[in-house]
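Course assignment 3, question 2. Fill in each field.
Student: A.L.
Task: Predict the tertiary structure for the chain below.
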Amino acid sequence: MRVALHVGIEASSQVARGDGVTSEPNVLILGIGNLLWADEGFGVRAVEAMHRLYRLPDCVRLVDGGTQGIYLVQLVRDADVLIVFDAVDYGLPPGTLKRVEGDEVPQFLGVRKVSLHQTGFQEVLAMAEMLGDRPRHLLLIGVQPVELEDYGGSLRPEVKAQIAPALHLALAYLAGFGVHAEPRQGPVAPIGSPETAMDRYEAQRPAAQDAFRAGDDRVLGGGGWRGPTDFDAEMAQLVARSH
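Answer field:
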């Protein structure tokens, strides 16, 4: 059974190159973000789900871009079609999924940043354009985050629920170029580290009482440190002995 969702996209099933030759498009599907900060990991989780659920044709490259920033520039330059999954501050209700296409994409990645990696990826697009190789077709599929200040946290339910709709938007966009995915029939090795796969990540994360997730109250509580720690005492002794 083939997945072929069409949503009225004007695109050719072939891409014309500078020499007049047409060929199958080079597609890059990129998930960017940081798994360690809750909903900031949406883009990476979407790419992981795409890899786990669908078999893609050889013209499609699926990449966990994490927070690599400018190190992704050559991948972007090589692509005719670029699809980006990310957590984006659209100024919409938390958990809202929104697609942005074409020249509007860089401004959404830069004007209202939810993290530093977005500035980095905005620069990647600018560098690719400066070098004359920005993808001809660009789609951003982003979700408005619910929670970011949760170190070691996972996606909030409202954001996790948008992974499947995000994949459908991407598949529909690809279908407009004659590129189709097929559902996988069995398990597949994870695209990233097995230790960070979402089920394992959620099951093995420390409990809140064992690991600070939203910062250390001794610092963020507004009252400063509440007395010396063992480390502070040891350092004080070392300094005293050095004089």
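Instructor remarks: Residues 1-21, 223-228 have pLDDT under 50 and may be disordered. The first strand starts at residue 15 and ends at 16.
Grade: pending
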